[in-house]
Structure formats: C-alpha cells, structure tokens
Amino acid sequence: WDSIDMDFMNLNQTAHGGREFGFIGARMRQQHAVVTGHWQDKEAHTRIGAWMRQAVSKQDTRQLKVCRFGDNMREVAVTDGDKVAAQIKFGFSVNTWAVGDLVQVVNSIGDGDINALIDEYESSYTLTPATQIHGDKRQNVREAARIELGMKRFLEQGGFHAFTTT
C-alpha cells in the first residue's frame, strides 16, 4: 500500500469513472457533451467554457419569465396559442402587462433614487452640455432615469428576467 501514489490515482481516476459515467448517460439517452484534453490545456478550457455557458443558458431558459408590455390577454390559448405552445415546449412564459401597470410603478420612483442614478450616469459617462445640470435637456435625463428605475422595479417585483414590447 505504501507504494501506491494516491495523488496520481485521484488525478487519473476517470480511467474508469469517466467511462462508466459516459456509458450510463448514453444508455439513459441523456444529452451530454464530451470534452477531451488535459485539464490545464487552453483548448480544453475553451471547450468546457463554451459548454458551461450553453448549460447555464439552457437552465435559465427553462425558468425564463418574460414581460410583454401592451398586448392582448394573458394565458389564453385561443389568442396566445403560440405563446402557450412555447411555454409547454421550452418552459418559459411570455405574458402581457398593460403599459398603465408600468406607468404606475414609474410614477412611484422618488427623486432621491433618480438623483442617485443620475450621479451614476455622470460618473460613468460624459454628458453633453445640454444634459448637464443647467442644460435645457436635463429633464430628459431625469425622465429616462425614472423610467429605467421604474422598469427595473416592475421586472424585479414580477420576477421577470426580460421584457419586450408590441
């Protein structure tokens, strides 16, 4: 037992486990990907990274909840047949919300929150003179910040991950 290099064994244990895992997955007809190469190889890292991004995207899609502003009724198969079919097949939902629902949330955003977001804009971007503090377009920046914050709050409160409009 003293002559067994356990570090080497642990590092190379997929000689059996990898084959077993692959065989079982194939017999169960599970979707899978195979990446070969040394664990420190840049090409192996690239391929594993691509697979990981795809796996995360697929999992996110299964739970995706999309808000569609302005349209017809929600969850009605007669008018929303394609959306209902997509929800069944892909697992995500795209439901309609009235623009007025969004407007209520946008209008509830306070000046303090708006000012904080504008401060962030000013520290991240170079604003044109017209959009700076005494510029004639400053109100446009304030309104854009109010809409951004309202939309973000609406989406967070509804558990949405994305939105679209009609």
UniProtKB/TrEMBL annotation:
Q: L-arabinose isomerase N-terminal domain: which residues?
A: 1-61
InterPro entries under this entry? AraA_central (IPR055390), AraA_N (IPR055389), AraA_N_sf (IPR038583), Fucose_isomerase_N/cen_sf (IPR009015), Lara_isomerase (IPR003762)
BP GO terms, sorted: L-arabinose catabolic process to D-xylulose 5-phosphate
Q: Which organism is it from?
A: Leptospira interrogans serovar Pomona
Keyword Nucleotide-binding set for record: no
Keyword vocabulary terms for this entry = Carbohydrate metabolism, Isomerase
Q: Which GO terms describe its molecular function?
A: L-arabinose isomerase activity
Q: Which residues form the L-arabinose isomerase central domain?
A: 65-166
Assigned EC number = 5.3.1.4
GO cellular component: a single term: cytosol
Indicate what this protein is called per its UniProt record.
L-arabinose isomerase
